Amino acid sequence: MAYDVKEIAKKILAKACPDCGDEITNLKLQKMLYYMQGFHLACFDEPLFCDEIEAWMYGPVVPLVYDIYKMYGSSGIPCPEGEIISLSPEEEDIFDQVYDAYGQFSALKLMEMTHSEEPWKSTPVGIGNVISKEKIKKYFLTQIES
What we know:
Blueprint: H1 5-15, H2 26-44, E1 53-56, E2 59-61, H3 63-69, H4 89-102, H5 107-115, H6 118-121, E3 130-131, H7 133-145
Antiparallel strand pairs: 1-2, 1-3
Helix pairs in contact: 2-4, 2-5, 2-7
């Protein structure tokens, strides 16, 4: 079952809450959504969320989420209010593993990483240029097998 991408973004932001000594910018949030989607596709053979990820100049972007948080510019996004979505136990496990593995990196480091990966490299850069879920899944399957 795919979730609402806005709820997944809130879940990432809640995990990175500044009160916990962490902070996440819109740029970093976009990369985390990409990694969450990639590993979810590879592990469960279905998307975490249905929204498309596009290949923008600074890496993968979910336009809807970008638009919601663009007002923060390069500043940290505050902790979200309200209830945070729960995933299945298996999905929560993958979510936490991906967050722990990639959340430690800066937005710029994550951007460099995504720029070196096949899904972004093989998609023309520009607004509206979708990185296909199939391309993302194929690449991330190689990451869980290695």
